[in-house]
Amino acid sequence: MDVILPALTEGVDKATVTYWYYKVGEKVSEKDDLVELSTDKATFNLPAPASGTLSKIFISEGDVAQIGDALGTIE
Amino acid sequence: MELKLYDLGLVDYLPAYEFQKKILSDVKNGFLCSALVVCRHNPVITLGRRADKGNILVKGGIPIVETERGGDVTYHGPGQLIVYPIFNLAFLKKDIHWFLRFLEGIIIDFLSDFGISSERVSGKTGVWVKGKKIASIGISIRNWITFHGLSLNVLENDLVNFGSIRPCGMDIEMASMEGVSGRVLDINQFKQPLFSKFTQFANPDFPLSNLRG
Prior knowledge:
The complex is a heterodimer. By secondary structure, chain A is mainly beta. Chain A has no helices and 8 strands. Helices cover about 0% and strands about 50% of the residues of chain A. In chain A, strand 4 (about 35-40) and strand 5 form a beta hairpin. Helices cover about 25% and strands about 30% of the residues of chain B. In chain B, strand 8 (about 125-130) and strand 9 (about 130-140) form a beta hairpin. The interface between A and B is medium-sized, with 19 and 22 residues. Strand 5 of chain A pairs parallel with strand 9 of chain B, so a sheet runs across the interface.
């Protein structure tokens, strides 16, 4: 299952990935904090959408993601 | 929205941070609706998640703490009122940028009551008086619950320590309520009015639409 960056607010189409709480290959539980992003003067966390193994990270720390982008995959 | 006030007085940054995290947990677990933590900090330089350490110009004096809040580098000292709103945005509006504008709106209204005219500057989060920054904002959000928050410069003599950093990674000047008003102020007198302003704005009946923009 892909981890998708959801819509954040009107008029904002991107956010910067600032921290991955897990490394590729590690097991995650649904609703655990998975990835932190930053926009303007705010950081926010996305929880894991499912339990499983974080198999891929598509957007690394410091890189910018667009709304709707897959940030990583949980299998 | 029920709002509980905690006044920590003059406190080091890290104990206040641990306190915030405890309240954050209480709000997440439903023991509290929302809370406002008010305090003053002993001198400290904090780095946000996106901070460039090159923006610390003088090292070795003031303690430095790395945090997960948004924004770059800032300074906190006893001449500022620090407000950490630990709000469950499920009770207000689930919109990160709206919440930043909400905080700016509260400070602008609060300063207006004191006779200070301030404003937002597009693209530069914070509250400004004639091009100088009087309040800084940097927040984090977990499960739509906010923490970290804002600092309001009240006393003029504390501003000198901003010379140790490039605030927010920008070459900006800071302002204080004392400096702008030309009056000597008792910082503690502003805690209750600021809390009242937050209570007023966080009321579901308050026309929050006025804060957009």
